């Protein structure tokens, strides 16, 4: 029998006691792990007498989750067989009331001969109760973890109960865990438990500073987004969201279409008011003597290269008003609704592309970025609703910066919602992206190839790293680069010849609550992304 996930009404007898109802079972006999969402490790269904779920890695904090985020009082049971340890103090077990991949209660067998009832909060494990138990690889252990109100009870092989009381997590999914331990898992079941002596606590929603304009609700982090394609040629990700008085990102649609092949004509049209579609033909060398070679783009513009060799060289593009760090609310004339596509931007004396000062609804798609003196694409100072997609980055150091400074919270907190997808980081060095303060950063289906580091999250930035392929990356993902800790949730990524795992911490909003997207399997990324990213590939 494979996965069964049902909610059944409890049967109430005349005496007033409730009979347990089955919420979920999985024996993996159907040969798959459908319904489970993994974070870290290497998970697959294999044979061990019967079909079991195997976690094969000892070098990762590995978890798979299933069930509903709204489950409160229940009992989860499973059989667990450790098969290898990645060091001292490693464990394998089950979890209840999982808030995500890094916050949950757990019952586990640990390789220092201990059964432990504990919790992980923000990625940090703590013991609530423990008991001596002979623990060895190749042995099956029957685990039973009950959460009822604030009461937690765990048993291994029907032995002495481990008990504790904790009110941090009131509801959540179940999970199977291999914390730097490989293991087999089987016969997972979830049943309702009688309500505890106190009602389960609720977790308050995260708050952000008041804004003069409404923002979309923050969804509960739970399941991956739907596999729904966005029509070709239209902005997707956060650039597609209706917000701040702008319905998605349409650029210069509806305005005059002009073709330019000189810097004078190019600079004239990008600064004009009103919508324009500006087609770039051939190579345009931009002046470098004014404002560090940065040239301002006004609202409602599409700047698109013709063919496969349209190039902007020598200077960079600035999307945003002049810098004013005293401004903490979006001005009415903030630059918005700009599309940059099918261009090779190279050789700038500052940034290749800079987005700043509350600019919003920006789509940066199918471009090539190389050899800039500073950032390739920097997004900062309260900018919002931006998508960076299908771009090729190479021969560049500081690639993607999201928020420029640790003192920028007054402008950035509650903003900097950015999607990075299907980009090819081809031996570019660092910042892919490096994130501060962001309310939500979605990094999915990117191909990382021989980089110093991938994603860095700090200053409470919320980052989802999903279905990316990392090859020969020293640090694929870090939750602390400098300053206060950030947050990273990771799922579905593949790491090859990387020196460190992706670090995770805290909870992150679910992007499917904001927009539709299709996430390819990470294994397909090294083929799909180089074939489609960069200039001359809009088709």
Automatic annotation (TrEMBL):
State where the protein is found: Secreted
Q: Which InterPro entries match?
A: AL/BT2_dom (IPR010496), Pec_lyase (IPR002022), Pectin_lyas_fold (IPR012334), Pectin_lyase_fold/virulence (IPR011050), PEL (IPR045032)
Carries keyword ATP-binding? no
Q: Where is the signal peptide?
A: 1-20
Main subcellular location of this protein, as a coarse class:
secreted
Q: Which UniProt keywords apply?
A: Carbohydrate metabolism, Lyase, Polysaccharide degradation, Secreted, Signal
Residues of the region (Disordered) are 189-253
Q: Where is the composition biased (Pro residues)?
A: 194-229
- The Pectate lyase domain sits at 253-476
Determine if Repeat is one of this entry's keywords.
Answer: no
Protein family (similarity comment): Belongs to the polysaccharide lyase 1 family.
Q: What is this protein called?
A: Pectate lyase domain-containing protein
Q: What is the lineage of its organism?
A: Bacteria, Bacillati, Actinomycetota, Actinomycetes, Micromonosporales
